Amino acid sequence: MDSPQSSGLRKLKPVIVKHEEFDFSKLEDRPKALCIERHRSCDERAMHDLSVRSLSAMPSFKNGSSRSHENLETIPSPDKKSVINTPKGSYFSEASPMMAEGWEALQRSLVYFRGLRVGTIAALDHSEEALNYNQVFVRDFFPSALAFMMMKEPEVVKNFLLKTLRLQSWEKTIDRFKLGQGAMPASFKVLHDPVRNHDTLIADFGESAIGRVAPVDSGFWWIILLQAYTKYTHDQSLSEMPECQKGMRLILTLCLSEGFDTFPTLLCADGCCMIDRRMGIYGYPIEIQALFFMALRCALALLKQDDEGKEFVERITKRLHALSYHLRSYFWLDFKQLNKIYRYKTEEYSHTAVNKFNVMPDSLPDWVFDFMPTRGGYFIGNVSPARMDFRWFCLGNCIAILSSLATPEQSAAIMDLIEERWEELVGEMPMKVCYPAIESHEWRIVTGCDPKNTRWSYHNGGSWPVLLWLLTAACIKTGRPQIARRAIELAEARLSKDNWPEYYDGKLGRYIGKQSRKLQTWSIAGYLVAKMMLEDPSHIIMVSLEEDKQMRPPLKRSSSWSS
């Protein structure tokens, strides 16, 4: 999100996307019922067996049956009736007043384009200058999308996917430089002309962001959400549309293009993902690599096996094998590997080199030796020549678990680490976006003296409630629901009372962030998704991919993996 400090920066002309009449009527037709025997994957069967509450236990509606995606109605305006008076609001009121409050706020955050719900704004807080918090962010909408699907309202997700797909097709120019055709916007907003009664979309592809960095993660989140929608609805008609197939191929063309890289990972600029300000993640950040891996696996399942699709399937398969080996081998850190790095020799030449990136042992930070438990491990933040960023990043590690980038042993080790370092990573409000914070001289060099990313604040060791849904999903997949339950109880003690802040500050996450917006939509959605997922673990099917054992490298088990 842009901060107030950005107001003094040079303003650039925004990319304005004016939609002429686009025939949504064809896209809104309900899919015809197909008589196809559906074979459930092992992952789906496992999650079905794990479920503690059947989907049939969801609330019933006035017609006596649960409301499905086939009979949804588009809500004309969020102000016309209170959500608490709807059957779902009543269900939440009975189950949890906090969930009812969250669901109502989520409904009020909906954005409409020509009568269709197309997303949710970043925050409902009107006490501060809007900046870009009144826009629909691709990454921010993901937990909202999951919440709507869990409440059997997938139509808003479909509209969002189609709308952002249309934005992708427009020419994107920043300072006379043309972005790649497959680039997805970071966000968009709807401008309504009351005189002409006409809606116009304004998209931001990075030209208005801090540092003017295009979002690398938006395209990955879009593909992952398309797969989640397809899994939820059991309807492939959307993903098989020529427009969606082309959109995926354009995204893949950008990230699978050949260059000078000797690594299968993606080279990225600082500020290209959730951490959208200068925080020293340039290079090969784990958040992008994990999302890249998951998006490739989702695309593999979504692409049609036609002439164009087959070419991409082959390229994806090769990249996945190389990417999984690279990340599991060189990004993974546990007690045994840390000791190995500590004893590295340097200046090794030839193919037999052990210290392949020529990392200097003296560059290891002091804190990592105390932070690393005997049992446990995690994917470190970054690996590049002569550099290893040993910081813990929550999103990258949770996505690694959900996508099965992490092997079952590594997934268990990540959860062991969270339990062993609960005070550092969770504290009083789940969960740290990264750990530890950078401070003093290092903070000045790495962030450029960023006043928003001071120590233990915002992206520099701040605690973000939205990460609760990722933690919960990872806990369910690894069979550790008690960890998620403990984290949710911590969040419930304060989130609603504090009016749903964007983030918390301090080593323990005790204080509401100094520039934190209230009624932050993804804080609300993250809590709702975590709560509903814990009550019905079968929901994890939307965001969980089962392991592909062909991609497992011949790694030796370390002591942290043994029982």
List keywords for this structure.
563 residues; alpha+beta; single chain; disordered N terminus; Beta-fructofuranosidase protein; 4-stranded antiparallel β-sheet; globular; two-stranded antiparallel ribbon
Describe the structure.
This protein has 563 residues and is an alpha+beta fold. The protein has helices spanning 24-27, 42-50, 87-95, 97-108, 138-150, 155-168, 217-233, 242-256, 286-302, 307-331, 335-342, 366-371, 394-402, 408-420, 422-425, 440-447, 467-477, 481-492, 521-535; strands at residues 15-17, 110-113, 116-120, 136-137, 173-174, 177-178, 187-193, 198-204, 332-334, 377-379, 382-384, 387-389, 392-393, 434-435, 504-505, 511-512. A hairpin with a 2-residue loop joins strand 11 and strand 12. It starts with 14 loop residues before the first strand and ends in a 28-residue tail after the last helix. The relative contact order is 0.12.
